[in-house]
Specification:
It contains four helices and nine strands, in the order E-E-E-E-E-E-E-E-H-E-H-H-H. The chain is an alpha/beta fold. The strands form three sheets. It has a four-stranded parallel beta sheet with strand order 2-5-7-9. The chain has a three-stranded parallel beta sheet with strand order 3-6-8, with no helix packed on it. The protein has a two-stranded parallel sheet with strand order 1-4. The longest helix is centred in the C-terminal third of the chain and has 12 residues, at 80-91. Helix 2 (80-91) runs antiparallel to helix 3. The protein has two domains: 1-78, no CATH class; 79-123, no CATH class. It is 29% helix and 23% strand. It starts with 9 loop residues before the first strand and ends in a 5-residue tail after the last helix.
């Protein structure tokens, strides 16, 4: 992985982070870590290789910010709630109606209703 050639400001290996709400990580390697409550946390230019975002409550991930690149997501495991939340965000975009419909259909129905209630459409 090319990311292994980077010089990181911090390296975490196999750590469990129960609560990092509001915390900021810059250019950090979080390898094989478990992240539970990440609401409001920022992961700027971080590599999350082999890590797990293990949040079952949507409130535990709201407002989290991540850099959108391959090094952030490659090998990252997401809890079902977290994955469905990412998919739901994509359904809020416009265009690509067929694909957005498929994404919405992939979201667990009870969770989809919760997301729709929490984040009503502005249309």
């Amino acid at each position: 992985m090319a990311a292994s050639l980077r010089a990181y400001k911090a390296v975490y290996q196999g750590a469990t982070f129960e609560d990092v709400r509001g915390r900021r990580f810059d250019n950090a390697l979080l390898s094989d870590c478990v992240l539970r409550r990440i609401a409001g946390a920022t992961f700027c230019n971080c590599v999350l290789a082999g890590s797990t975002v293990d949040a079952d409550d949507i409130r535990d991930i709201l407002g989290a910010t991540v850099t959108l690149d391959c090094f952030t997501f490659e090998g990252l495991r997401l809890s079902p709630t977290t994955l469905d939340a990412f998919l739901y965000l994509l359904t809020l975009t416009t265009g690509n109606d067929t694909t957005r419909g498929r994404l919405e259909a992939a979201i667990e129905p009870q969770r989809l209703r919760l997301f729709q209630k929490l984040f009503p459409s502005t249309e």
